[in-house]
Amino acid sequence: MSAAPAVGRFAPTPSxxxxxxxxxxxxxxxxxxxxxxxxxxxRIEDLDxxxxxxxxxxxxxxxxxxxxxxxxxxxxxxxxxTDIYRQHFExxxxxxxxxxxxxxxxxxxxxxxxxxxxxxxxxxxxxxHLTAEQIAERSKLRRPAMRLRVPDMDVAFTxxxxxxxxxxxxxxxxxxxxxxxxxLFGYQLAVVIDDALCGVTQVVRGRDILASxxxxxxxxxxxxxxxxxxxxxxxxxxxxxRRLAKRDRDLDLSALSRRFSPEEILGLLASSAGLLPEWxxxxxxxxxxxxxxxxxxxxxxxxxxx
Length: 306
Ligand code: GLU
Description:
Layout: E1 7-10, H1 20-34, E2 39-44, H2 54-67, E3 76-77, H3 82-94, E4 98-101, H4 105-110, H5 132-139, E5 145-148, E6 154-159, E7 163-168, H6 169-173, E8 176-179, H7 187-197, E9 202-206, H8 213-223, E10 229-233, E11 236-237, H9 253-259, H10 262-273, H11 284-288, E12 301-302
Parallel strand pairs: 1-2, 1-9, 2-3, 9-10, 11-12
Antiparallel strand pairs: 4-5, 5-8, 6-7
């Protein structure tokens, strides 16, 4: 990554106890920043307060500390930053880029082409050109979500791990939600504001978010913020090749911390990712010196039977 002093971060959503997939991301984000002598920040993405109870946020912080992670500033909680998101939202509104969308979940679903496969659904634009009267009329019935209007523009960047990536905003993403109908600000908006205001220079996260990155770059540039470097990482699967999810309780830290020490868990992750030849106990700090992105696998990582 770049020669400027790095600022990395880990930004979990605490809707469940951290699992090995989250921890792989924390590990690589930490090693990437620290191996450049950089700073490391922790951000709790608990915007969706009903799904992310306080206790789970606190548990995530404790779990990371137990594993040996240290951060250079007090952890930031998105649930406490609504005013900051609102100010940015209003700036985007004043640029004429935001419009209300009254589509219900069912309408959005019905408008989708079948066989999308893995691709994210692209919004068809049903509410993109409503008149003031239509907006007033529909507002009586339901509270709208707010979408950001995107141009027909290619956004390209080079991922630090997967290489060149390009999307056309209008064709591949569509106008996207920056405030939900329940009033909560959207992930895409909050994440870029926080990364920008905290001076984050490198974003390391799962490849499931790769396709959000052009939207985030567009938002950053529109708001006049610098664009960080991005490195997306492979996803972790269980020993049968199934993607880890919050429901896999046996691979989350409540179960793992009863069976393994922090050093054993770190060794499991480091060896699975390609940073160690075999699974053995290691400290976080001992992995910094030899960290190299070139060693990290690109294909999804299958955990051994544990
Ligand atoms: N909060 C997101 C997650 O837990 C990660 C967001 C990001 O790293 O940009 O999947």
